[in-house]
Please model this.
Amino acid sequence: MQAIGFNGVDFIEFEKEIDSPLAHDLLVEIRAISINPIDTKVKQTVTNKQASPVILGFDACGIVRAVGDKTSLFNVGDEVFYAGDMTRDGSNATHQLVDERIVGRKPASLSYDQVAALPLTSITAWESLFDRLKITKSDQDKTLLLIGAAGGVGSMAIQFAKQVVGINIIATASRTESKDWCKQMGADVVIDHHDLVGQFKDNNLEAPNFILCMGDPDEYFETMAELIAPQGSICLLANAGKDYNINLLKAKSITLVWEMMFTRSMFATNDLIKQHELLNEVASLVDSGKVVTTATHQLSPINLENIVRAHAIIEKREMIGKLVITQITH
Model:
């Protein structure tokens, strides 16, 4: 197969033998991928000491070409989408092996490129809202604050929170176009990233019961502790760069949780199949018209030039929605 790897200095294109799928694995022919901020972060951990280039990439959509002897969820020819596993080769290739228990059926109503924008951000948003913050339909009268909501995860979090629960959503964004995007996704109120406490007071906004922070938590920890309603919950995605005074959360009895969408696959948890079920639910929401793709920028084909170009775009940190790369079909 053809693959694009990173050797610690540059991306390079190279040939690699296609391994046969074993146990729960699917061999997927990749038709489209998406580049995420985490791709650029993982790239920074790669050194030139690896024996071979590291194949990056998580989001993918494609067709099952072979299955392992323990598979039961998919068959050869099925169209699928998934976000992969940090411990295995990524999706920047023509083919990829992936455990079927973290794979969903491709939404029938969307093209490969539209679907490739969905898996990683959908899993992250869904697990953040419903597994970590534990928001349920009984919380529809409460308020959710989404910090940094115009990106991929925020775009899906707005849609899930509104379509699955119906909760009141306050989103933060900085530019006019990103604020408009958040409203388009379904946010009830959109405010600026800066001086959140002042904006809540000026706009007479209710204290949020839940906060999902997709920005740098170092910038917002004290603000979140001040804003959050008593007995509320805060979920963080990005790494902390400094120590926090968690005593700030005590008086209000605040719950602080983290979301890492690769936890289940990294540790082969007993509930690994939850990501398969989650992605199938997302596919149903898409096919019913309740959730839309967040693909906003497309490149083609999947090659060395476009992988390099995509990383450069993502590293500018100005993306609204998702960047996808489509393979030329044959």
Notes: The mean pLDDT is 95. The longest strand covers residues 25-35. The radius of gyration is 20 Å. The domain at 2-118+270-326 is CATH 3.90.180.10 (Quinone Oxidoreductase; Chain A, domain 1).
